[in-house]
Amino acid sequence: MAVNYRVPTFPTNLPWFMFDLRNKVLITSYTIPGDISDTKEIVLTETPIPGLNFQPISTGGGGNRKISFSIPIVKRNNTVGNTLQRAAFENLRNKGFFPTTTTNVNSNEFAPTPKVLYQYGVGIPLVYFVKKCDFVHKGGWQNELGNSTYTEVQIELWLDETDPLYKMEEQYRRLAAYAGAAIQAYDVVAAQTLKQRPF
Predict the structure, then answer these.
(1) What is the domain extent for residue 46?
(2) Does any domain span residue 62?
(3) Which residues contact 47 (CB under 8 A, 6 or more apart)?
């Protein structure tokens, strides 16, 4: 499969990025994610009752919002390959360091893995837990020192709905729903009566 290096062309555009909140590292890349999966489970429960021809359904709330995608990290013009670019992603799957209270050394025994601020392709910037950060080093893409020059990073993020940014996003979503409904209604009418393309 060929690698698509093309980035949408705009006069100016915000590049793909994640911000590692624990280590204060901005992670960005010229390449962008492929398909971005954005899922949130709706929890429903069926209750079997003898004699009924159906099972009553009770609502059980909602699951966590989960974002997943893969992004190619390519660096072919130096001896270390993409090792340095991958280092920021490495931090996402390792615990941070806390200074201990009893000694003057650092320990990561009880430190959580980092959270990230993420936005690209899914709406406004929100804080996510990093659930998965896996590497697939592509065969045949190693340089003269054996370092990978093309790595596919597979990311899964879980939304932190306790963060204040999410509370603000809830209010925004309620208002945006009315605006979105009005735009959709206009597009339907324009497509049928004015023969305008809705896309």
Answers:
(1) 17-160
(2) yes
(3) 55, 56, 57, 58
